[in-house]
Amino acid sequence: MENTVPSLRSAKTSPLAVTSFIFCILGITYMPWLGSVIAIILGKMALNEIRAYPERYDGEGLAKAGVKIGWIGAIGILVIAVLAVLFLAPLHAVGPVIQ
Fold first, then answer.
1. What is this structure's pTM?
2. Which of 12, 23, 41, 71 has the smallest set of CB atoms within 10 Å of its CB?
3. pLDDT tens-digit map of 37-59
């Protein structure tokens, strides 16, 4: 009789989930809108992959975080853009000051 210890964890973290999480962080820092959109897409792909092969892949939390933070980044940049237009439009309407 062999003395083998069964593996407690046979599934590995999905590379798509990790990549989605990395892009969601980039989406709120260095690549504002593009990183967020990529994070959402990769996160959805990772969730589908994890649900299709639960014995092979893990990392549902990372994928969900990538999607949620990606949406926050994408919507946040749109809100900032709309607010910038609303606050800067009155300055443009006044025009240059002539002395």
1. 0.78
2. 12
3. 999 999 999 999 999 999 999 99
What radius of gyration, in Å, describes the C-alpha atoms of the chain?
Answer: 22
- In this structure, are strands 12-13 and 57-58 parallel, antiparallel, or unpaired? parallel
Count other Cβ atoms within 10 Å, centred on residue 59: 23
Give the tokens for residue 65. Answer: 């975080």
Within 13 Å and on the Cβ side, how many CA atoms surround 56? 10
pLDDT at position 90: 74
C-alpha 18, offset from chain centre: 10
Cβ contacts of residue 9 below 8 Å, gap of 6+?
Answer: 58
Using the Cα atoms of residue 81, residue 84, residue 85 and residue 86 in order, give the sign of their dihedral.
Answer: positive
